Write the structure tokens for this entry.
Amino acid sequence: MTISYSISGRHRNDEAVRIYVCNLFKALKIQRLSSKQVDIYFRTKLDADTLGLCMGDTDEVFIDIAKTSYNNKLSFLAQMMTLAHEMTHAKQFLRGELAHNRDGEFLWRSKCARGYKYKNQPWEKEAERLEKVLFMECFPFHLDIK
């Protein structure tokens, strides 16, 4: 069995996105997490002009990818780079590395993560470190992405 996923919303190249998502699952070593679900939504705009969001738990993850930010259309490849970043967070949730407590505060490896500035959050550092590597290794550049 393998991880289940869905992709919703309008995006440029369905075949490229599907191949890319499967490649990301493999690179992050979450492709064999059976009975887990990842739902990816391409949205026109996200709150606070965020490029992407990821929320979830050890069973299910929801990823939102913005198509515009600060009223500027994001390129397809910029959206795919954001997807690599958010997919790292998906791995963190599904593996229980990142979670929320009852008060909605982040827990990193079961410890309260209150007090971290955004760029110093360990889960963000990992996603930042991996996003370009994952993008370059996993995106199907051989496809025509008109």
Remarks:
- The two ends are 33 Å apart (CA to CA).
- The beta strands are 4-8, 37-43, 52-56, 60-66, 68-69, 72-73, 98-100, 106-108, 111-112.
- The longest strand covers residues 37-43.
